From TrEMBL:
Substrate binds at residues 19-21, 34, 57-60, 116, 153. (2R)-3-phosphoglycerate binds at residues 34, 116, 153. It comes from Actinomadura soli. It catalyses: (2R)-3-phosphoglycerate + ATP = (2R)-3-phospho-glyceroyl phosphate + ADP. This is Phosphoglycerate kinase. The gene is pgk.
Length: 395
């Protein structure tokens, strides 16, 4: 992959695809890790006199303009961190974007509105995606891919635009790939993978491939309930992927045959509503009341997970063990984060929310071997899959 050092960017319009998908609460950014991780590439381009046009997504607005998914707060924070004005375009490829780009001086920075406000960005139809990619590419002369967290998406800004412009990988993508490559080569064993979070259907698929690579797979977060249900337990109102039950049963069977250990929670913190104030308590994993939903793994599970991490030599963790944003449901995530640290293994934490959880819960980032900005992206990388956003940069 070419890097930005291979490009002549002075005075040129450079489109940087970043991952600025940060957590927000009531319109305020609660963790700016992904913005900070994007700074070195933007700063390097500015220092070389490029006109920097940053584009990114926020959440999943599904091709519609939804004000709660505006990147405006991100533009403000990016400006603060850069110590420079960031021109914020109120659209992605319309008049506002064009005006913001035309107004850029050498070394200036503009941020376009949320890419996913445009249906073409995420379209599965090549022609629709391509038409949007044409418009986005027309804003710039050079493309820099630096949104590691989105490289597994075959989206216009990730996959199609680099086919239309001279391109290179930014520093973040280069750094992420360098660390994650180690986990696809000779890993020190036992190799444990801990999975949680809420993007259950996205991430259940990666287990297929992990069964041939990991020695232990620990399941927490919103993933748990599809497993518990597959084992015949009731899960009440918890997050559930009904159509994945047979797949999960198959995983459990294959794991047994392959000698891979699945570690499932033995207890669950179940609440009457998705709220910090809701009535909640610890129940056995097999006895979630029908009117409750599981929002964290329980204390015995936290101990069990830490014990199954203790002798691991390599650990990859993606996805919080519970709804850590609410204190009553943060202990499972705490226990697993501490378990990684205490193991002394080579530890990689991946994912926007997982990385945010580590920081929010007060852990020292330096206590982990690597904190990746991508969850789904790093999991798919570890599967050995060709990722559209990396493929496009290699071509
Ligand atoms: N039991 C659960 N029910 C619902 N949501 C959960 C549960 N456990 C964790 N979550 C949520 O999962 C979200 C993070 O999931 P995900 O995006 O998959 O992780 P990452 O960004 O680290 O890849 C968090 O916002 C957290 O509140
Ligand atoms: O947050 C992200 O991924 P992650 O939760 O797997 O770390 C990326 O910004 C990709 O977002 P998407 O999963 O909505 O495509």
């Amino acid at each position: 992959m070419r890097t930005i050092d291979d490009l002549d960017v002075g005075g040129r319009r450079v489109l940087v695809r970043a991952d600025l998908n940060v957590p927000l609460e009531d319109g305020a950014i609660t963790d700016d890790g992904r913005i900070r991780a994007s700074l070195p590439t933007i700063e390097a381009l500015r220092a070389r006199g490029a006109k920097v046009i940053v584009c990114a997504h926020l959440g999943r607005p599904k091709g519609e303009v939804k004000p709660e998914f505006s990147l405006a707060p991100v533009a403000a924070r990016l400006g603060e961190l850069l110590g420079a004005d960031v021109a914020f375009a109120a659209d992605v490829v319309g008049g506002s974007a064009r005006a913001a780009v035309d107004g850029l001086a050498d070394g200036g920075v503009a941020l376009l509105e949320n890419l996913r406000f445009e249906p073409g960005e995420t379209s599965k139809d090549d022609a629709e995606r391509g038409a949007f990619a044409d418009r986005l590419a027309a804003l710039a002369e050079i493309y820099v891919g630096d949104g590691f967290g989105a490289v597994h998406r075959r989206h216009a800004s990730v996959y199609d635009v680099p086919k239309r412009l001279p391109h290179a990988a930014g520093g973040l993508i280069a750094a992420e790939v360098e660390v994650l490559r180690k986990l696809t080569e000779d890993v020190e064993r036992p190799y444990a993978v801990a999975l949680g979070g809420s993007k259950v259907s996205d991430k259940l698929g990666v287990i297929d491939n992990l069964l041939g690579k990991a020695d232990r797979i620990l399941i927490g977060g919103g993933m748990v309930f599809t497993f518990l249900k597959a084992q015949g337990h009731e899960v009440g109102q918890s997050l559930l992927e009904e159509d994945q039950l047979s797949t999960v049963r198959e995983y459990l069977r294959r794991a047994e045959n392959a000698g891979v250990e699945f570690v499932l929670p033995v207890d669950i913190v179940a609440a009457t509503a998705f709220s910090a104030e809701a009535d909640h308590g610890v129940v056995a994993a097999g006895a979630i009341p029908s009117d409750r939903l599981g929002l964290d793994i329980g204390p015995e599970s936290g101990k069990l997970f830490a014990a199954r991490l203790a002798d691991a030599r390599t650990v990859f963790w993606n996805g919080p063990m519970g709804v850590f944003e609410m204190e009553p449901y943060a202990n499972g995530t705490r226990a697993v984060a501490q378990g990684l640290i205490d193991s002394g293994a080579f530890t990689v934490v991946g994912g926007g929310d997982s990385a945010a959880a580590v920081r929010r819960l007060g852990f020292d980032e330096a206590a982990f071997s690597h904190i990746s900005t991508g969850g789904g992206a790093s999991l798919e990388y570890l599967e050995g899959k060709a990722l559209p956003g990396l493929q496009a940069l290699e071509d």
